[in-house]
Amino acid sequence: MKLAFISIEDVQDVRSWSGTPHFVLKELQRRGIDVEVISPLSRRYRYWYVPHKIIAKLTGRSLQIMRHPIALRSFARQIEHRLKRKQIDAIFSTSSVPISRLRAGVPVLYWTDAVIEGMSDYYHGDFANLSQREMRIAHDQEQAAMDRCSFAIYSSNWAARTVKNFYKITGDKVQIIEFGANLPVDHDINDIVRFTDERLSLKKPECILLFIGVDWERKGGALAFEAARLLNERGIKTVLKVAGCDAPEASFVERLGFISKHTPEGQLRIKNLLATSTFLILPTRAEASAIVYCEAAAYGLPALSTKTGGVEDYVIDSQTGYCLPLEATGSAYADLIAKTCAEPETYRRLSLGAFERYKQILNWDVAVSSLLDLTERAIRGNRPQGASPMHSPAPQRMEM
Fold this sequence. Notes:
By secondary structure, the protein is of the alpha/beta class. The protein is built from 13 helices and twelve strands. It has two domains: 2-180 and 363-382, Glycogen Phosphorylase B (Rossmann fold, 3-Layer(aba) Sandwich); 189-360, Rossmann fold, CATH 3.40.50. The strands form two sheets. The chain has a six-stranded parallel sheet, sandwiched between helices. Strands 9-8-7-10-11-12 form a six-stranded parallel sheet, with helices on both faces.
């Protein structure tokens, strides 16, 4: 199989999209897939939109410039130029955006975490306060990508349901493949048992709540803070360790700052935090598919989160952690933490359940296997009747 791998951002940068494109590419290469990497893509078109940005800032509106026709044509030209006179069996993209205007030819698949209909006014920042015109442009882009692709792959049932309910898409074109952990994992079940025993050990009486995220507000930091405060008031010694963003100062808060996965030292720090903490606490207000859930599961770390977005595909309530209602208070989190810590067998079950979820679903080996199965299906569906199963036909010429 010869696969073109498309990423707008630099696929070699582990800081891009939490490292997801990087780890997908590494897994494909590990399997010996012949990959033509087309990344990063130029965004020189953005200079055309300087006046639009000024107007948007003055009016308090957001822009989705990458979805505009000029940008889409630019991405298509770049990809088609790179693929000219090359034999490619399929094109894979980590976003629906760059492949929206590609000419007909080889099969196209994309794998992402959400669509604009699900994200608009759900996430803040670039997804908030979009004008009706911007929404129309964004919807047209999403629909064009779905029309062009063989499979539109999403990382959660939440995203897939949004697509099926809002866009024109037929058959089994919409597929679900959960993401994996963006950390090297070199331990086994025996290590998970040891991690769990050490967390429950009488030699370490404090409860360690781990909060990892770059957005304190959206990730529900205030609720995590309140839960830790209440636990300490109740006589349960609790430490809230915060990585990735600022947090309020308090005697029970340990502010770790941003920890980069780009360095071996950063990876080791994150792995140690996941191995030694009692819970991952992320009472997020809005979430598509946070990779940290996969990484917590990889270390048998039970997660506490909310029933929103795609979270429930990653934190299975009462099996790998707990998903509380969005309106749950810090007191509700504190109650659940205290109850679980007082029941060692319950905690062990959650810890082992989290690791089992990682082994079965939330890892790149399993995820990329599913991706390659879909890619093979797309290639077979594009092959003329009677063509050799070992070789795809020459792609149609992609006109510039």
